[in-house]
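agent> Task received from the user: take the single chain below, predict its 3D structure, and emit structure tokens. No templates, no multimer pairing.
agent> Plan: (1) validate residues, (2) run structure prediction, (3) serialize to tokens, (4) report one or two observations.
agent> Step 1 OK, no nonstandard residues flagged.
tool_call: predict_structure(input=
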Amino acid sequence: MTVPTTAQRSITPPTKACHNCRRNRLRCDRSVPQCQKCSSKGDQCQGYGRLLRWTNAAAVKGKLAEQVGQRPHAPLMERQTRNNSDHPNLRLQTGENSKSEVRVPVYPVKSALVDPLLNDLSPQHRLYISHFSNVVCQDLVSFDQRDHTNPFRSVITLLGTFDYLREIILATSAVHMVTLRRSRNHPHQRELIDALAAKGRAYRLLRQALDHLDAASRPIVFIAVVFFINFDLIDSGRGSWKTHIEAAGKLIASIQQSVSAPAVASSIPPSVAQLADIVIADCITYHILGSGFAGPEEEEDDDDDDKPTTMSAAFAGIDVPATLQRAAAFSYGCYPPSMLDILSKASRLVSGRDAVEAGDLIDQLRGMDVRAWVYGIEGLSPNDELEFRVSMAGAHRTATCLYIVLAVPDVMDHRPDLVNDNSVESLTQEVLHHLAFVPVDHALAKGLIWPTFMAGAQTEDLASRQWCLGRMQRIWQSTPWICPWGYIESAINMLQRVWETRDRKLKDGNQGGMNWLQELKATADQVLIV
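)
tool_result: status=success, residues=530
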């Protein structure tokens, strides 16, 4: 930085070389306003005037390079009282050999401003909120872009008002940091303790809130309950997610009735209403996909076909396709609503009894125009990858067909016309074909864990198995859009157990192998895979 002199402001050529040439001991052409030699080298010419130099600055040459002047830094209070001045002065030399100085007031630098909403939180808790906003919210939607509003970030504005919501958000963010650090083999003990402590506080505060629940706060309570499910998904995919889904389902009907009332609807901010819609869609998706692998205790009673399960009863009366379609632009798994509705029906089918209905569901799936559905989604970002979404919808459709064939194997006996295109082998290859069109390092790929698990569990080809396994591992821990949710790790472990069991039965002479879906539904260890 130079201070213009009278000679420099006139057209009189300078009498000395520029500072760059003098420092490098080069012949300067003394061009005005800057040396042409510096310009030709791509350097910024320092000019011909007097240089302003910081005293006690770091040396750039010699033995003291990268070291600061030897005078020790005085404490802040000492600097403030020096020379009986209100503010300390920073001395600037106005020439290389000049004794003249310019004194510039120096003001103490304070810490960064804190959002008033987070003013009462500790620095560690503010770190968790920042992690939630910058990282966790990316995982909660299909494709997070800065030019496209992420509704989940609006929850931060509610944290100062609803303490139970604040605590479950802190717990969710902390457990996300646990899984992220664990996937990279980093220490995570402190974050784990914080996550469990915040979850415990959230339980206690939520129970208190339920005792004084009004219509306007029901959407907030529901959002908090669904975040308990997200906590379980991020942790391992196990835990009490079934109980939380059932509790959330009981709240949905009352929420929809409350929102339909004009007096209540006017008191709910639009951002909260939109977030509630999206969270309701997530909850329904969790319920349907969880029911797909549900064990005997969640299935319907065979003696009473019309008696719904506990979880199914919680979602009775909800228009599933319409609810899911409203959140299609943000849906984590990019699963077409009509297909989820079919999967919900397929999860209640019984082999040997519902073969006709199973064939009808396959016909409905095959008749869907997934491309038209993708291109008709409202609210997508202009930068969204629609063709990737088409491939994802195709993978979900075929994986759902595979699920129906495995759930009701005798459907092929009643529908011979389905054998060629809907055998388990051809369906598995078709799912793998669709998956290959979505790059594993793309943000949308995290929504393909369920179809990848379906195809990977069914295939007997070792190369295809390793491809599915490697894809899930990369999404979990190594892609740029890493999704370190624990349910992915649990799905990987479950996939390997399925292979071990199938291969062992084949080795023992069971040439028919096994129906892994029936075996999985019979186990007590249930993992929510979304």
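agent> Step 4: summary for the user.
The chain has two domains: 2-105, 119-521.
agent> Done.
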